[in-house]
Amino acid sequence: MEIPAISLKTIVLVHWILTVWACSFPWLPTSYVLGNVSVLAVGVWAIAQRDSIDAVLLFLIGLAVTILTDIVHFGLYYLTNANPPDLFRFSAGMAILSLLLKPVSCFFVYQMYRERGGEYNINFGVPTIARNRDAYQSIDHQDQSVSSACTPGQAEDGKNGPRSY
């Protein structure tokens, strides 16, 4: 089964519209707006630089982080009045719809990350200890032509004394 190709422009546009509609009623804090708009700005950067792996990776990480921050914002700031205004219900519905679409968007952005040449495992530049010893050269197998020509106290020209480098 082929995964349908969804444009990065479509993902950014849909999340931008939902974020604007979610902020139509002032129940969410400024941190919600700033977090989502800054992630969408990184998405615009990923659209502008079509070959950049870093832009898509940062957009993917930003979407994943805003999933968690959106859940925290909804838990802290959701109004529980018995009869909330209609504009609040619309705003909350758009914010929740944006939250529900973010995992799907993350999946499609990850596919774009792989299409642009990203690896399966995401490397954050943290050095790791590898057990692969193929890259190391053993000190037991030195080049025999160099070691037989010069003894440890002898220079390259055959005379005793210090070597000139």
Map the helices and strands.
Layout lengths: L7 H15 L7 H19 L4 H25 L8 H30 L28 H6 L16
Helix pairs in contact: 1-2, 1-4, 2-3, 3-4
What would you note in describing this structure?
- The structure is a single chain.
- This protein has 165 residues and is an all-alpha fold.
- It is 58% helix and 0% strand.
- The protein is built from five helices and no strands.
- Helix 1 runs antiparallel to helix 4.
- The chain is elongated and about 100 Å long.
- The mean pLDDT is 84.
In short:
The protein has helices at residues 8-22, 30-48, 53-77, 86-115, 144-149. Helices cover 58% and strands 0% of the residues.
Main sheet properties: none
Structural class by helix and strand composition? mainly alpha
Share of β-strand residues: under 5%
Report, as a whole number of angstroms, the end-to-end distance.
Answer: 65 Å
User: Any idea what the radius of gyration is?
Assistant: 29 Å
Indicate the percent of residues in helices: 55-70%
Number of helices: 5
Helix and strand run: HHHHH
* Uncertain regions spanning at least 5 consecutive residues: none
Mean pLDDT reading = 84
**What does the overall shape look like?**
elongated
Number of distinct beta strands: 0
